[in-house]
Fold each of these.
Amino acid sequence: ETGVTQTPRHLVMGMTNKKSLKCEQHLGHNAMYWYKQSAKKPLELMFVYNFKEQTENNSVPSRFSPECPNSSHLFLHLHTLQPEDSALYLCASSQERRGYQPQHFGDGTRLSIL
Amino acid sequence: AQSVTQPDIHITVSEGASLELRCNYSYGATPYLFWYVQSPGQGLQLLLKYFSGDTLVQGIKGFEAEFKRSQSSFNLRKPSVHWSDAAEYFCAVGSNDYKLSFGAGTTVTVRA
């Protein structure tokens, strides 16, 4: 499924680097989400955007900074990350920000912090 | 707040055999229930969803799930697995607002 596209697919960065993850959805959805997936742990919701407005910050450290310039694009800016931030970062979108709306996921960015 | 438990971390099944993955949820109101599958190196793909009505739900790839309110369960089944069904499976429950809570996942290995 190519409805939600994430780039890059893999990213290796040092703890002092600054990088950004990009997500683009072609489904005409109005809500977008960032999740963190660590091994053997449930998906952790990080941020939620609804019609470009941030509606949820799930106690995420400030070294992660989201940006949503429009309903189709979502970014996650990274700086001064820690080794425990190594994980798969998944972007998702849904038609509306409602619990009954299925979320459609991208293939994720595998992030490794050196 | 809602929560999901997937009791089985890992299941191994022979190709052609039946598969059942367990999911128990906790939520005070009528739940919105989902099953997703994640193949290696990929994101999550929606298999099926339950909101109301018929408690037996059909999904893609030959999967079905049954909602049992009395047991707070939403188990996923497939009558005959294929090698391509090897993946990680996630059960999720949605609340009346927007939050989707996922279980920790069940890894399915298919042996020839």
Amino acid sequence: KAGVTQTPRYLIKTRGQQVTLSCSPISGHRSVSWYQQTPGQGLQFLFEYFSETQRNKGNFPGRFSGRQFSNSRSEMNVSTLELGDSALYLCASSLGADRGIYGYTFGSGTRLTVV
Amino acid sequence: KQEVTQIPAALSVPEGENLVLNCSFTDSAIYNLQWFRHDPGKGLTSLLLIQSSQREQTSGRLNASLDKSSGRSTLYIAASQPGDSATYLCAVRRHGGATNKLIFGTGTLLAVQP
């Protein structure tokens, strides 16, 4: 059973550019969440998608956006990159969004460096 | 607002020692609590998931307990090995409102010396 796949693993971008990260959840999982990990802030919730709909959004500026496709794959986009966006971006998939009884499985992450 | 704290922030033990990692949370209205390990260059690996109605979960040398009323969870690692060296994170899935997100603790960096 394949795990959560995130691509690319590493990215180097210049300030002002935009970037798109991809996440393929475990087969059958319909919920995909995104988290940002930085040394100073730890793991912070970005947003969560379920059945192509954004259900929850964390406290991040509008430059951070995402979407989910009908096959549950998700993309995250960051526009007008800033140095502070350098972080490890983790995607997590879960079987469903009902009653919160399911755990999460995380991918290996995308390491984004903004220069 | 839910806050999750882990103590200690860092721990170094000799191989073979039993150890306990602590996690506390301020709001007991949670669906479940999950323990993860994070290895450098890798994503998070789920270790144990405890539902709010459960008291503990065990997997191999790991045992996690949950006391929802007091807002505490512990992760017990028996007979520690150098391969256990990693950052351990606990995360709670809150109940009500924005249910579908994890709130992570600050992490415990564990080093097991051979």
